Amino acid sequence: MRKYLGLLLLLTPWAAFGQTLCPGEEWVAPLVSYESTTIEFFNNLSDDIKIFRINSQKERELASEVTPGQSVVEDSFVGHPWVVTDVQGNCINLFFAEDAARVVRIAHHETCDAESLPERAFLESPSEDSHESGIGVIRGWVCCDAGTVDIVIDDGDFVLEAPQGSRRADTEAVCGDVDNGFGLTFNWNALEDGKHRVQALVNGVEFADATFNVKTLDQNFVKRDQAIYTLKHFPALGKETIIQWSNAHQNFVIIGEDD
Questions:
Q1: CATH topology assigned to domain 117-214
Q2: Is 212 within 8 Å of 119 (Cβ atoms)?
Q3: Matching CATH topology for 13-106 and 117-214?
Q4: What is the C-alpha to C-alpha distance for residues 162 and 165, in angstroms, rounded to an integer?
Q5: Are 155 and 142 in contact (CB under 8 A)?
Q6: pLDDT in tens, 239-249
Q7: Which of 17-21, 188-192, 204-208, 211-215 has the lowest average pLDDT?
Q8: Among candidates 67, 75, 73, 63, which has minimal Cα distance to 37?
Q9: What is the torsion angle, in degrees rounded to the nearest 10, for the CA atoms of residue 94, residue 97, residue 98 and residue 103?
Q10: How many angstroms from the chain centroid is the CA of residue 221?
Q11: Would you identify the CATH topology of the domain 13-106?
Q12: Domain residue ranges in the chain
């Protein structure tokens, strides 16, 4: 889904009244868009919330107030910024309308506890029995407010910290919000060929444990320029896919195709 940001170099007038702005709110401005959409706000808190649209003067404009357990659907345009606050006008979060009708659930960001964590977190890559090579991304999502996720490879040979809190719209239905992603890059060439183990933990509580496979080219970093090859009959019979070695990825990337 697309996100649209506009820049504004002056603070909005709301800052003068003591209300807490959302991170980045002072920089956003609505862009001209004629693609209509809707955004629905569910109030899962125990107190009222206020919904503001950012108008053409880059100011908050009250659209509605929502009581606990209720929701409101606002007409919008793709990319338009919306701010949700408490009744005093202090930021809860900043949202953008998207191509498809968006549903936003306003709830307290849960703390991480040992009982619920395994059901509210997921390590996507590497996965059980996956094959890894080159430079990849260790990634996944955690619903609770973790801050960082500890990644342990081969029982402590590598202990890494993955920042958590990146936007993952696909987790909204499970988590109730979207700032749940975590990830970090890792050069799989640092490992020997064969099977390896990865564990993911938050505050010492493990929520993932997987065994995966690594294959290297017996070098930590392979540098090749203009290494271009053609894969015949891929992705279908009669098709050809052109690939090139990428030093940055330590892997091949697709650069073209032929019939």
A1: Immunoglobulin-like (2.60.40)
A2: no
A3: yes
A4: 10
A5: no
A6: 999 999 999 99
A7: 17-21
A8: 75
A9: 80
A10: 28
A11: Immunoglobulin-like (2.60.40)
A12: 13-106, 117-214, 228-258
